[in-house]
Amino acid sequence: MDRFEAGERVRGYESLDEYRRVRCVYLDDLMRSIEEEGYRPNAETSHEPAAAVNGFEMAYVHRLEPVVAIGRGGEIQLCEGFHRAAIASVLELERIPVNVLCRHEEWQRVRDRIVVDPSMVQNYGPAIDPRVHPDLQRFSPDEPR
User: Fold this and answer.
1) Are 73 and 107 in contact (CB under 8 A)?
2) CB under 8 Å, gap of 24 or more: what pairs does 13-22 form?
3) Helices (H), 6-103
4) Alpha helix locations (H) across 1-104?
5) Tens of pLDDT, residues 117-127
6) 49 within 8 A of 62, measured Cβ to Cβ
């Protein structure tokens, strides 16, 4: 509200009323759809933006899955797709697809070592269990939980 009152556009919308009328209705519909039909990856469906006349809503990021960066210790940081991730959390979905934007170079080194020798997953301590870490599961010799 403060940004609108300061004369700013928010996500391409000119007013709080327009945002509520278009964007919030779209998000409500998205939540209902995910709840009733499950999470459908954007690659498997056509994306219908909240407003066809809004350039922000037509941006390429809205054709991707939520975007994450992976930190030095393997922590996953959400960069884009906050609404889909929040809806998935509220609906208690165990997993959703994401696009990895980047990985910290230290994490990439760990990942590269594990790709070369999958038995190395056991060498990385309890802070992040590589057998269940989403960025490492496919390389783990053990079954993920």
Assistant:
1) yes
2) 13/51, 13/54, 22/50, 22/51, 22/54
3) 16-18, 25-37, 82-90
4) 2-5, 16-18, 25-37, 82-90
5) 877 766 766 55
6) yes
The Cα–Cα gap between 82 and 27 comes to 11
Q: How far apart are CA 96 and CA 39, in angstroms?
A: 7
Domain ranges of the chain: 1-63, 66-145
Q: Could you tell me the mean pLDDT of each successive run of 10 residues in the chain, 145 residues long?
A: 93 91 87 89 65 57 81 92 91 92 94 81 66 78 52
Largest Cα separation within the chain, whole Å, is 57
CA distances, 105 to each of 88, 112, 129, 134 (Å) = 29, 10, 19, 17
At 143, which amino acid appears? Answer: E
DSSP state letter for 19: I
Q: In the chain, helix, strand, coil percent, each to 5?
A: 45, 10, 45
Tokens of 25: 């209705």
In tens, the pLDDT along 90-121 reads 999 988 999 999 999 999 998 888 888 877 76
